[in-house]
TrEMBL record:
Source organism (scientific name): Sphaerisporangium melleum
Record-given protein name: Chromosome partitioning protein ParB
Matches recorded under CDD domains: SPO0J_N
Ranges of Low complexity composition bias in the record: 25-39
Family: Belongs to the ParB family.
Chain intervals for the UniProt region annotation (Disordered): 20-41
Keywords, comma-separated and alphabetical: Chromosome partition, DNA-binding
ParB-like N-terminal domain ranges (all copies): 52-142
GO molecular function: DNA binding
């Protein structure tokens, strides 16, 4: 069965560049931040690059890729992450003609997508050979575009991994503190279903950051569920974490198997069943016991009561005074 890529949880750098070939290349971005409101201006076209969904089968690896050994366990873990929250970081490729593309960056993501049998993969198609220009343009657009916390974290991670940017460079260029960059990147370490809640907006980035001090993923997932169910504030979550009150959901208590009936009680139940010609159960609990006598009809009940206590049977025929 073909695995379709999950969408809607984030686009990373794919949100920061055009979705088709640029007809007229934009001027190279300057070293200073753009004037005006970055959020209002929107992303600028990136010279020599555009975003595209590319068939996985149309991509060929880079023959100059220095890495030729890929850890299979790590690839499976990456594939599990992509299956859970989608592919947040597009690969980077260049067109080589006849509908084919050569990988520049992101071979692990491409290989993991193949494991999932994905048909298409998000990619930045790069025409320019100037890595510095592309990196600087994407950093500038990151300052302009409104991304959710997971998209922002994915964009930071790709700029760090694929383009060699540093935390300091990102902090200076997007007008954020270095600690903000670091803490945002840490959101990518949260369990998959917690990331899904953040991307869907059911919990805020502030809530997610408050969960980060917890080392137990199960505790993070449980507290995230409480945030949604109880409407907890970020401050409340921080207090729960700091006081050590955040734990994983308690495991369901196993049902205690009933003790095997004592031989004496089993023998007594058998004798009573024979005597009253019906099924009789004798149970003995910790503090008290009980005898259960089964009957089929009212006539059967009258017969049993008559055998137990003939005087009480008068209630059925109206002879009781």
């Amino acid at each position: 069965m073909v695995q379709q890529r999950r969408v809607g949880l984030g686009k990373g750098l794919g949100a920061l560049i055009p979705t088709g070939p640029v007809v007229e290349a934009a001027s190279p971005p300057s070293g200073s931040a753009a004037s005006g409101s970055p959020a209002d201006e929107g992303p600028k076209p990136v010279a020599g690059a555009y975003f595209l969904e590319i068939p996985v089968a149309a991509i060929i690896p880079n023959p100059r890729q220095p890495r030729d050994i890929f850890d299979e366990d790590a690839l499976r873990e990456l594939a599990d992450s992509i299956r859970e929250v989608g592919l947040l970081q597009p690969i980077v490729v260049r067109a080589v003609g006849q509908g084919r593309y050569e990988l520049i960056m992101g071979e692990r993501r491409w290989r993991a997508s193949q494991l999932l049998e994905m048909t298409e993969i998000p990619a930045i198609v790069r025409g320019t050979q100037d890595d510095e220009m592309l990196r600087e343009a994407l950093i500038e657009n990151l300052q302009r575009e409104q991304l959710n916390a997971l998209e922002e974290a994915a964009a930071y991670r790709q700029l760090l991994d694929d383009f060699g940017a540093t935390h300091e460079q990102l902090a200076q260029r997007v007008g954020r503190s270095r600690s903000h960059i670091t803490n945002t990147l840490r959101l990518l370490n949260l369990p998959g279903n917690v990331q899904t809640r953040v991307a869907a907006g059911t919990i805020s980035a502030g809530h997610a950051r408050a969960l980060l001090p917890l080392s137990d993923p199960a505790a993070q997932e449980h507290l995230a569920s409480r945030i949604v169910a109880e409407g907890l504030s970020v401050r409340t979550v921080e207090e729960i974490v700091s006081m050590g009150e955040a734990t994983a959901a308690p495991a369901p208590r196993p049902r205690r198997a009933k003790d095997a009936p004592e031989p004496v009680l089993a023998h007594l139940a058998h004798r009573l069943s024979d005597h009253f010609e019906t099924r009789v159960k004798v149970d003995l609990g910790r503090h008290k016991g009980r005898i259960v006598v089964e009957f089929a009809t009212m006539d059967d009940l009258e017969r049993i009561i008559g055998a137990m206590a003939p005087q009480a049977a008068n209630a059925f025929d109206g002879t009781d005074d």
